Amino acid sequence: MLGRYWPPARRLVDDGYRELAVPGPALPTPTLAIEHTWDLAQLGAYVATWSATQALRAAGDDAAFAAAWSRLAGAWGEPGRRRLVRWPLVIRASRLGVAAG
Questions:
Q1: How far is the C-alpha of 18 from the C-alpha of 12, rounded, in Å?
Q2: CB of 16 closer than 8 Å to CB of 90
Q3: Alpha-carbon gap, residue 68 to 62, rounded angstroms
């Protein structure tokens, strides 16, 4: 639902930055994530900060958002129930040679 409202550069994030060239051999990186235990209101407050959510609302598509949020709330269950919310972090890293000076 929000896909068309993300800025085009968001594609880089969704693709794990694989399209970005690194200036040397790519290094393996650890698997990282941010995790929080939130209730439904906390998740909603976070989702409201997304640029795509704001763009959807600015476009007057509140009904689509409300319908999707209603489905999510129904699946969530008790609004005060705390659930693990997790999103991955992606790092692209490489080793640069240092020229002797």
A1: 7
A2: yes
A3: 10
pLDDT, tens digit, for every residue of 78-100? Answer: 999 999 999 999 999 998 766 55
Kindly state the DSSP code that residue 88 receives in the 8-state scheme.
E
The CA radius of gyration of the chain, in Å to the nearest whole number, is 19
Is residue 27 a contact partner of residue 94, using CB atoms and an 8 Å limit?
Answer: yes
- Answer yes or no: are the C-beta atoms of 58 and 48 closer than 8 Å: no
pLDDT tens-digit profile of 16-74? 898 988 888 889 999 999 999 999 999 999 999 999 999 999 999 889 889 999 999 99
